[in-house]
């Protein structure tokens, strides 16, 4: 059993542990937020989410019931109104779920999703894309994302959790950082030769093997299966959402041959085909599951909690 607030704090710290940024960069970000907070006045100060002063992941939040003790978490990729209602139904039948973790953010954690995109600057520069280019690209894409999510119905899911009195948190970038660092190290070590080999290498990971069952396995979305993978960049695994089409041009100029992502938008695929860049999409649900599993393995070592996997999430334990 663990208090949701304490569990959330643990998840944030583990997310920082696997973050592509140096800790000093994260400390600077939090320091800036503290300074800005001091200057706030009136409603903006009163309504400020003080968790932001300690937690750099605006998409990894307690949504409802931080003071509640949780023993059994239902965990899914998308835990929305229908899943919360389903859980209430299951509880009527005696499942005793007392906490919910959704990977994809909801409520204010979705409304501020664009705020986490800055970490992609460090992912890109790690792969040799000049920091000036990375900053320009990430800045313009995150302002686009911000405008896109602004009109959403953000109070809907939080209110549902409140009405059902069900503890709820989101665990997005903290988990995706784990998937990113795992896949980066794994592919760097395996050095697959062709795109075909790259796909086979990814399929060695249990979450991706599971994904075959649902026809959502890794796929080549640009390039030929006999193409050499060359320099592989795990560029679409963490940092909120994808970078759109512009990333392809930067890859051409920086010598990255193959982009590995959880999923890729249509425009990005078209651009990649035009520029002879390879795109391998590892698969969305298995990639999200991988990140969730790696962080929950650590959580289950520390806390006595049970996990009920659902909504596109496949539980695989690694430390038994
Ligand atoms: Fe994700
Ligand atoms: Fe996702």
Automatic annotation (TrEMBL):
InterPro entries associated with the record: DUF34/NIF3_sf
Highest taxon above the source species: Archaea
Name the record gives this protein: NGG1p interacting factor NIF3
Species of origin: candidate division MSBL1 archaeon SCGC-AAA382C18
């Amino acid at each position: 059993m663990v208090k949701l607030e304490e569990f959330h704090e643990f998840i944030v710290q583990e997310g920082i542990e696997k973050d592509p940024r140096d800790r000093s960069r994260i400390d600077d970000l939090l320091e800036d937020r503290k300074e800005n907070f001091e200057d706030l006045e009136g409603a903006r100060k009163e309504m400020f989410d003080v968790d932001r002063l300690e937690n750099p992941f605006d998409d990894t939040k307690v949504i409802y019931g931080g003071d509640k003790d949780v023993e059994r978490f239902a965990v899914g990729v998308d835990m929305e109104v229908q899943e919360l209602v389903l859980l209430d139904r299951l509880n009527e039948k005696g499942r005793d779920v007392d906490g919910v973790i959704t990977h994809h953010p909801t409520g204010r954690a979705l409304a501020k999703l664009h705020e986490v995109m800055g970490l992609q600057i460090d992912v890109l520069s790690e792969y040799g894309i000049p920091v000036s280019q990375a900053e320009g690209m990430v800045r313009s894409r995150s302002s686009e994302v911000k405008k896109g999510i602004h009109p959403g119905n953000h109070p809907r899911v939080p209110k549902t959790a409140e009405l059902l009195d069900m503890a709820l948190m989101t665990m997005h970038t903290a988990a995706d950082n784990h998937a990113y660092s795992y896949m980066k190290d794994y592919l760097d070590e395996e050095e697959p030769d062709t795109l075909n080999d790259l796909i086979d290498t990814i399929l060695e990971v249990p979450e991706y093997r599971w994904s075959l069952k649902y026809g959502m396995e890794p796929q080549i979305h640009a390039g030929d299966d006999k193409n050499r993978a060359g320099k592989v960049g795990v560029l679409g695994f963490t940092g909120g959402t994808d970078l759109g089409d512009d990333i392809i041009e930067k890859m051409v100029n920086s010598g990255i041959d193959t982009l590995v992502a959880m999923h890729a938008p249509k425009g990005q695929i078209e651009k990649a085909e035009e520029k002879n860049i390879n795109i391998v999409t590892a698969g969305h649900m298995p990639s999200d599951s991988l990140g969730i599993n790696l962080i929950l393995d650590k959580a289950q070592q520390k806390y006595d909690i049970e996990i009920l996997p659902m909504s596109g999430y496949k539980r695989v334990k690694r430390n038994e």
